[in-house]
Amino acid sequence: MTDNQKQEYAADESTDDPTTDDMAIRTDVSESVSASGPTTSGAPVVRAENVDVWYNDDQALQDISLEIPENQVTAMIGPSGCGKSTFLRCINRMNDMIDAARVEGDLHLRGKNVYDDDVDPVALRRRVGMVFQSPNPFPKSIYDNVAYGLKIQNKDGDYDEIVENSLKRAALWDEVKDQLDTSGLDLSGGQQQRLCIARAIAPDPEVILMDEPASALDPVATSKIEDLISELAEEYTVVIVTHNMQQAARISNKTAVFLTGGELVEFDDTEKIFENPDSQRVEDYITGKFG
Ligand SMILES: Nc1ncnc2c1ncn2[C@@H]1O[C@H](COP(=O)(O)OP(=O)(O)OP(=O)(O)O)[C@@H](O)[C@H]1O
């Protein structure tokens, strides 16, 4: 199993025994969703307030505050090592799995701080799905890859229908509908990544995090993933880390520019960032003067 597959398995492994009383006092973030009422499109779904992250004594993110709007694509760009992936992993608490990592500050999902003691990270990750850089299907059939999250959650429902709908939403159904029993590993790289997207959306998350989802793909497969991301934003809030500035400009509504040292230098509408940024450092970065 690759590191990515292990990460995905580990992220889903429940730390709770649902039969214990302890479960009763744990808060599924979804409960706070309904408690906070419906949100309108464009309202912030994720709100970071003064987030700092350290790996041992090295600070990777400094005082990050930003609001990620609903049903839009928000891109995180910046040079290598500036903390983009670290920030993404704050949102679904994947940094919890890195021993050296320490997160301070508040990270709200629809008004609930995901770092509160009563939040179960496994429940959180059902609300906040993730797609990694390299496609990482499990060594299972296409069907079982998509149904995986439903099965481990013992979710009720018509699995056949959910698998079909998820594959349709991931723009893969037509290519695989006659081979659902074959291994996900037999698909092309681009198909594998769309399978991973189908797996991420099957449990019906609210937010989908994507860490350079097209960087391992050829231009045709990349273009399909980009079209898909724009479509997904009609139903989900998408946050994408990308090294590719043209990609950020093409598909995102909002762009956050991180620079070396883990500083969020500018966060604004994508058009503004690329056409008329406030900061000279951002201008220099997007015009290729460094990075
Ligand atoms: N597991 C880890 N342990 C220790 N340090 C880490 C770990 N992960 C990241 N870092 C450090 O934190 C900083 C930010 O890394 P991160 O991967 O978040 O940046 P990034 O902007 O996503 O980089 P890239 O674009 O190269 O993927 C870097 O200095 C990196 O070396």
Automatic annotation (TrEMBL):
<dbReference type="InterPro" id="IPR027417">
    <property type="entry name" value="P-loop_NTPase"/>
</dbReference>
<keyword id="KW-0472">Membrane</keyword>
<feature type="compositionally biased region" description="Acidic residues">
    <location>
        <begin position="10"/>
        <end position="20"/>
    </location>
</feature>
<feature type="compositionally biased region" description="Polar residues">
    <location>
        <begin position="30"/>
        <end position="42"/>
    </location>
</feature>
<keyword id="KW-1003">Cell membrane</keyword>
<feature type="domain" description="ABC transporter">
    <location>
        <begin position="46"/>
        <end position="286"/>
    </location>
</feature>
<feature type="region of interest" description="Disordered">
    <location>
        <begin position="1"/>
        <end position="44"/>
    </location>
</feature>
<dbReference type="GO" id="GO:0005524">
    <property type="term" value="F:ATP binding"/>
</dbReference>
<dbReference type="InterPro" id="IPR005670">
    <property type="entry name" value="PstB-like"/>
</dbReference>
<dbReference type="InterPro" id="IPR003593">
    <property type="entry name" value="AAA+_ATPase"/>
</dbReference>
<keyword id="KW-0067">ATP-binding</keyword>
<dbReference type="InterPro" id="IPR003439">
    <property type="entry name" value="ABC_transporter-like_ATP-bd"/>
</dbReference>
<dbReference type="Pfam" id="PF00005">
    <property type="entry name" value="ABC_tran"/>
</dbReference>
<keyword id="KW-0547">Nucleotide-binding</keyword>
<protein>
    <submittedName>
        <fullName>Phosphate ABC transporter ATP-binding protein PstB</fullName>
    </submittedName>
</protein>
<keyword id="KW-0813">Transport</keyword>
<dbReference type="InterPro" id="IPR017871">
    <property type="entry name" value="ABC_transporter-like_CS"/>
</dbReference>
